[in-house]
Amino acid sequence: MNDRPDAAELLDIARRTLLGDILPRLPQELRYGTLMIANAMAIAGREHATAGSDAEAEIESLGRLFAESPPPLAGTGLHATLDAYNRRLAAAIRAGRFDDRERAALLGHLRQTAAARLAVTNPKALADQ
Fold it and tell me: Which domain holds residue 96?
């Protein structure tokens, strides 16, 4: 079944309607909250478009840090595995595992992960670099 518009398209339509038709008619005191809602809708749309692939890429990167080959995952298993890996990573950092020769690999992973998250939450920040 091919339902059109899909979730991302619906968010985009709603956001454009909010900004183009509703925002101009709102009193000044409601504009900031409305712009925050529109921004949240844009983030949700970008997150929806990349959620699976970003999580898969982060799991692959974490697997390399831990010298493991994670199994292919989808849906809630993907996010549960990512959460578990990130808890392991935090514990390994606290334990000093990445203080010496593995530090460069850790920093590479953190840069890659931060850039992927910025691409969703604040893509303009990446364009400024």
Answer: 7-127
Which of 55, 42, 61 is CA-nearest to residue 117? Answer: 55
Give 80-117 pLDDT, tens digit per residue.
889 999 999 999 999 999 998 899 999 999 999 999 98
Number of domains in the chain: 1
- The Cα-based distances of 6 to 17, 21, 27, 42, 55 in angstroms read 16, 22, 32, 15, 21
- Does residue 85 lie in a domain region? yes
Go through the chain and tell me how many residues it has. 129
Would residue 111 count as lying in a domain? yes
Q: Is residue 97 part of a domain?
A: yes
pTM, whole model, 2 decimals? 0.74
Residue pLDDT, tens place only, 27-78: 999 999 999 999 999 999 888 888 778 888 999 999 999 999 887 777 778 8
Q: Which residues contact 118 (CB under 8 A, 6 or more apart)?
A: 125, 126
- Whether the CB-CB separation of 76 and 17 falls below 8 Å is answered with no
Distance between CA atoms of 106 and 65, rounded to whole angstroms? Answer: 7
Domain assignment present for 2: no
